[in-house]
Design a protein that fits this description.
Structural class: alpha/beta
Distance between the termini: 62 Å
Shape: globular
Largest sheet: 15 strands, parallel
Oligomer: single chain
Number of strands: 22
Number of helices: 17
C-alpha cells in the first residue's frame, strides 16, 4: 500500500465517507479487506450504536430465538474480552424497549455486572435510554458515569429515575441532561445541580426556587426547559434583580398550569441573548390585557428574540370573547423585536385583524419564516382577513415557510390567467387555515394554486374540536371542513394543470419564432 494511505487521518476520512453512503455492510467488509483498515473501520462502525444487538451478536453463544435474544450458557472471560474489544469504541448508544426483538433479562443483568473495572464502555459520551424495564435499571446505572456528555432520559418512567440520579453526581463533563417532564427536580438536592458545572441544556419537570437560582447564575446554560407552578414565589431569584442572569441562555421553554406563573421570570431577568421563548399553560391562559403586559415584558427584556411561541390548552373561557381578543394594537407591542422569524400564538384569546393590519405586521417582520395565529384553538370568531390579504402577506414576507390563520375565504375576483395578481411564493410549505369560512372551493383552490403552488393545505379540522361555536350549528362547521377538504384535494390538481399550461405556452412561443 502506498505510504500516503498509511496516514491515520486519511483512514478515518475514508471510513467516514463509506459510512456516509448508508451502507454499513461496506464498512464491515472494509474491516476484513485490509489489516491497515481494520482498526480505523471498526472505530467508525461502532462509534454510534442504535442498539446493544451489534455487540451481543459478537458472541456465538448469544442467539435469537423467536423474538428474544438469549444465551445458552454463562459468559466466559474470553467472551467478555471480545465484547469489550468492540464496546470500548462506542461513543454514542441508544437503548429502548420498543424493538421487535427483546433482549433477555439474563443478558441485561450480565452486562450490568461485567467483571471489568472500569466498565466496558470506557469512551461512552452520549446515552439515550428509554427502556422502562426495572430489570434493565442496573445496566443504566452502570452506564451513567462521570464521562458522559449527553444523558437523554425523557422517555424513562419517572418512578425509576430517583435510583439513577445519584449516579450523575459530580459529572463535570455533562453538557445535555433531559429528564421526563413529569419528573420533579424538587426532589433533587441543590448540590447535585451545582456539580454539573458545564451543563448547557437541561430538560426537566417542576423546579424549586433554589434550583432556579443556581441555573440563573450558570454561565454555560444555553437551553432550559422547565415547569413551574404556584409554589414558586421567586423570592430567591429576586435577590438577583439588577444582576446579569442567564447570561448565555438562548432558548427558554416554560410550562405551567397558569400562564401567570411564568411571567415573574420575565419580570426579574433581562435576557439579551435569548433567541427562542416558549410559554405553555395546561389549564388557564391570559386575558388580552394580561397578554399585552406579557408582550411588553418580552419586548423590553428579550430584544434579540427570534422565535416566540405561546400556547394555552383552555380554549373558550366563560365570558369569551369579552376580554379575550388580540387586536393589532396588542401585537404592535412586539414590533420592537426586529429579528422575529417565528410567531406562534395559540391562546385562550381570539384575534381581530384585517388585511391592512396584517400587511403592516408583514412589513415589520420581513424575515418572518413562520406565522401561526390560533391554528389549534381556532379563532372562534369570523375573520376579517381575505385571500387578497393573505396574498399581500406572502408578497411582503419573501421567506415565509408556514402560515396559519383564519380567513374569510369568500370567492375572490378570479382572473383567468393569474388570480393572485402576479404574487407567487413557491417556498411556502404549509398553510393551516384553522376555522376559516369558505364558499366556493374551486375558486379558492384556483387562487391558492397560483399564489402558493407548493403549500400543503391543512388545519381545517380545528373547527370540530373548538369549544365556542362561531357558526351556530355543528352542520355549518362540518360544511366548512368538507369544503376545505375539497380545496386540499383540488389544489395539487390545479397546480399540475397550470404547469402543463405553462409548458404549452412556451412551446407555442417557440413555434411562432
Amino acid at each position: 500500500m502506498h505510504k500516503c494511505l498509511q496516514i491515520a487521518e486519511l483512514f478515518d476520512v475514508i471510513c467516514k465517507r463509506v459510512l456516509a453512503t448508508g451502507h454499513q455492510g461496506s464498512l464491515a467488509a472494509l474491516c476484513r479487506t485490509c489489516r491497515l483498515f481494520h482498526e480505523p473501520a471498526l472505530d467508525v462502525l461502532y462509534k454510534s450504536l442504535e442498539s446493544l444487538r451489534p455487540l451481543l451478536f459478537c458472541i456465538p453463544d448469544i442467539v435469537t430465538i423467536g423474538n428474544k435474544i438469549t444465551m445458552f450458557k454463562e459468559l466466559l472471560l474470553s467472551d467478555w474480552q471480545r465484547i469489550q474489544y468492540y464496546a470500548k469504541r462506542v461513543h454514542s448508544l441508544r437503548v429502548n424497549d420498543q424493538e421487535e426483538v427483546v433482549i433477555d433479562k439474563t443478558i441485561i443483568h450480565a452486562l450490568a455486572t461485567s467483571p471489568f473495572t472500569p466498565p466496558m464502555f470506557t469512551h461512552l459520551k452520549r446515552l439515550w435510554w428509554s427502556n422502562n424495564s426495572a430489570d434493565a435499571l442496573p445496566l443504566l446505572c452502570s452506564l451513567v458515569n462521570a464521562r458522559l456528555e449527553w444523558l437523554i432520559l425523557h422517555d424513562l418512567d419517572p418512578v425509576l429515575l430517583p435510583r439513577v440520579v445519584p449516579h450523575i453526581i459530580s459529572s463535570n463533563s455533562l453538557h445535555v441532561a433531559c429528564f421526563p417532564e413529569k419528573f420533579s427536580m424538587r426532589h433533587i438536592r441543590p448540590d447535585v445541580l451545582q456539580s454539573w458545572r458545564n451543563l448547557q441544556n437541561l430538560v426537566c419537570g417542576l423546579v424549586n426556587d433554589a434550583t432556579l437560582y443556581h441555573l440563573a447564575t450558570s454561565s454555560k446554560l444555553t437551553h432550559l426547559t422547565i415547569q413551574v407552578d404556584g409554589k414558586n414565589d421567586y423570592s430567591v431569584l429576586m435577590k438577583l434583580a439588577g444582576q446579569p442572569v442567564f447570561t448565555a441562555l438562548e432558548g427558554l421553554d416554560i410550562t405551567a398550569t397558569h400562564t401567570l406563573h411564568c411571567i415573574p421570570i420575565l419580570e426579574i431577568a433581562e435576557l439579551p441573548s435569548l433567541r427562542s421563548l416558549r410559554i405553555h399553560s395546561t389549564e388557564t391562559g391570559l386575558t388580552d390585557v394580561e397578554l399585552h403586559q406579557c408582550f411588553c415584558l418580552i419586548s423590553r427584556h428579550c430584544p434579540n428574540l427570534r422565535h416566540l411561541r405561546m400556547k394555552d390548552l383552555q380554549v373558550s373561557p366563560p365570558k369569551f370573547p369579552v376580554g379575550y381578543i388580540i387586536t393589532f394594537d396588542i401585537l404592535k407591542t412586539l414590533f420592537s423585536l426586529r429579528y422575529m422569524e417565528g410567531l406562534h400564538l395559540d391562546t385562550t384569546c381570539t384575534f381581530s385583524l384585517d388585511d391592512n393590519e396584517l400587511a403592516q405586521l408583514a412589513g415589520t417582520w420581513l424575515k418572518l419564516r413562520a406565522l401561526e395565529l390560533g391554528t389549534e384553538n381556532g379563532w372562534r370568531q369570523p375573520s376579517k382577513i381575505t385571500l387578497q390579504g393573505f396574498a399581500e402577506l406572502l408578497r411582503r414576507c419573501p421567506v415565509l415557510l408556514v402560515v396559519g390563520l383564519a380567513m374569510n375565504a369568500w370567492a375572490p375576483d378570479i382572473d383567468h390567467r393569474r388570480p393572485g395578481g402576479g404574487i407567487r411564493r413557491n417556498g411556502l410549505e404549509v398553510l393551516r387555515v384553522a376555522d376559516s369560512k369558505i364558499t366556493d372551493p374551486l375558486s379558492v383552490a384556483a387562487f391558492l394554486s397560483d399564489v402558493a403552488p407548493n403549500a400543503e393545505i391543512t388545519g381545517y379540522e380545528v373547527g370540530i374540536e373548538i369549544g365556542f361555536d362561531m357558526y351556530g350549528t355543528f352542520n355549518t362547521r362540518m360544511l366548512y371542513r368538507e369544503r376545505w377538504e375539497e380545496v386540499s384535494m383540488l389544489h395539487p390538481l390545479l397546480v399540475n394543470l397550470r404547469r402543463q399550461e405553462a409548458v404549452g405556452l412556451e412551446s407555442d412561443g417557440y413555434s411562432r419564432d
